[in-house]
Design goal:
This protein has 141 residues and is mostly beta strands. The chain has 2 helices and 8 strands. A hairpin with a 3-residue loop joins strand 3 and strand 4. The protein is globular, with a radius of gyration of 15 Å.
């Protein structure tokens, strides 16, 4: 059994597509996310990518667009693991935007049920997952 080195809890996503491109490339391609945390994400690739590639990850929210920078830290078949390499302020801005606008896409697996978490985060009672959400939790906490 491998040791979990993740700093942030992950949340699973349902049919959330973002745009991705290798830094320096001309165009973005759409990819489907598997999971997401404040430290990075995992997606299904549809093109050739290499370990260590720097990526631009574009999230198109209803009220704004947020570009995150990351690097590929894991390739496993078609799954690509990416670690964010942006500043703490950029990560916080992204987490705030995501939590405000995309909670309807979540299948809760984070300890509080449905939000991206940063260190020191304390969930409010209204952030706890509902009974129906708990039934959909397919990963143990």
């Amino acid at each position: 059994m491998s040791k979990n080195r993740r700093q942030y809890p992950r949340i699973r996503l349902f049919r959330l597509t973002i745009k991705v491109k290798v830094k320096g490339a001309d165009s973005f391609s759409d990819v489907e996310l598997i999971n997401l945390s404040a430290g990075g994400l995992c997606f299904i690739r549809n093109s050739i990518l290499n370990f260590g590639d720097a990526l631009i990850l574009r999230f198109e929210f209803k009220t704004r667009q947020v570009d995150m920078i990351g690097k590929i830290v894991r390739l496993d078949g078609r799954e690509v693991g990416v670690q964010f390499t942006c500043t703490d302020d950029e990560i916080k801005e992204f987490v705030d935007s995501f939590n405000a606008e995309l909670s309807s896409y979540l299948i809760p697996t984070a300890s509080d049920g449905s939000r991206l978490e940063l260190p020191g985060y304390t969930p409010r009672p209204q952030d706890k997952k509902s009974d129906i959400d708990a039934m959909l939790d397919i990963e143990p906490q």
